[in-house]
Design a protein that fits this description.
Blueprint: H1 2-40, H2 44-77, H3 81-86, H4 91-100, H5 109-121, H6 126-139, H7 141-150, H8 155-179, H9 197-229, H10 232-239, H11 242-256, H12 263-269, H13 275-284, H14 290-300, H15 302-327
Helix pairs in contact: 1-2, 1-9, 2-7, 2-9, 2-12, 4-6, 4-8, 5-6, 5-14, 6-8, 7-8, 7-12, 8-13, 8-15, 11-13, 12-13, 13-15, 14-15
Length: 328
């Protein structure tokens, strides 16, 4: 049994590494051939599209791979009872502690929803579990390091993302503790046991990398298309107004569904927008996007997903504006 689990884990890791290397190779070749083909066809915008697309993909893949490896390891080897032992029963105190746990316990957006459901099943207060759900994919070390590399000359952007994301997670936990109703939240039913150890690590790594990698490629393509296809006159209308650029990128984060390990590189490519608007993109994305809304609706019910996502979006935007005004 142990040998089978080890074999599955090694195979999944090889698939992830080979897949990441293949994706990097394809992006590198495309970065060379794409502009050349575009110039041959006398279409400079296509060359610009390739440049933006490959830059986002090549920069994002290593962090995506690292993030999924760490996330799969936590899901396979860290028991859920660790949280119940560490968190106090008082929700007002448990919420900020659960939110701060996201700094040391990385996880992608897709993994945070089932983890939060598992925590609720094991007795963790919903407010604390929801705070962890929002913070884990937004402020973990992999995401913060990726943000520092995407914005090498702007250390305030890393601190701003940490503060705004953590504040959003904590405020949402407190709001649920104060105003949340039991009938809005459908507690997830116990799932069939998925196992632990190397077998679970291999399955989780393979699933997370393939799933998140697809969203990275789609997000990079969408961001490149946005940069090239949207007329400059339209962008000037939004980039020239701090009040319009922030909600625009906050909505764009919901639609693009870029994983948190790579969204900083997408935000960095949106250079025409203000730092606060790009901060809002990075704060909103890991907490509210279309795939997360669907996952929350399937896990906790549609009534919860609609209310929670809408309020989270508003709180994340306000938090980004306040922190951006303070730090950026």
């Amino acid at each position: 049994m142990a040998a089978d689990g080890l074999r599955i884990a090694v195979r999944a890791l090889v698939y992830a590494v080979v897949g990441g290397a293949a994706l990097l190779a394809i992006a590198t070749v495309a970065s060379v051939l794409g502009p050349t083909l575009a110039l041959d066809l006398y279409t400079p915008p296509v060359a610009a599209w390739w440049t933006v697309f490959t830059a986002i993909t090549v920069q994002g893949v290593p962090f995506l791979l690292l993030g999924t490896v760490v996330s799969a390891a936590i899901g396979a080897f860290v028991p859920e009872r660790v949280f119940t032992r560490l968190l106090p029963r008082n929700q007002a105190l448990a919420v900020p502690l659960a939110g701060a746990a996201g700094v040391v316990l990385p996880g992608c957006e897709c993994a945070s929803v089932p983890v939060a459901g598992s925590l609720m099943r094991r007795g963790v207060a919903p407010a604390a579990a929801l705070a962890f759900l929002l913070s884990a994919p937004a402020i973990n070390p992999v995401v913060l390091v990726a943000t520092s590399l995407a914005f090498p000359a702007q250390p305030g952007m890393v601190l701003g993302r940490l503060v705004a994301s953590l504040a959003t997670a904590v405020v949402m936990g407190w709001l649920w503790a104060r105003f949340g109703r039991e009938e809005w939240l459908r507690l997830p039913k116990p799932a069939a046991p998925s196992g632990k150890g190397l077998r679970a690590f291999g399955a989780g790594l393979e699933h997370d990398f393939l799933h998140a990698g697809g969203f990275l490629v789609l997000g990079a393509g969408a961001a490149a298309t946005f940069n090239i296809a949207v007329p400059r006159s339209v962008l000037d209308l939004f980039t020239g107004s701090a009040w319009l650029s922030v909600p625009l990128l906050a909505v764009l984060a919901v639609v693009l569904c870029v994983c948190s390990e790579a969204d900083a590189f997408v935000a960095a490519s949106l250079s025409g927008f203000s730092p606060t608007a790009r901060l809002a993109f990075m704060v909103v994305g890991p907490m509210v996007d279309l795939k997360l809304i669907a996952l929350q609706a399937g896990t906790f019910g549609r009534a919860f997903a609609v209310r929670f996502s809408a309020v989270t979006w508003v709180v994340a935007v306000l938090s980004s504006v306040l922190v951006g005004w303070w730090l950026l």
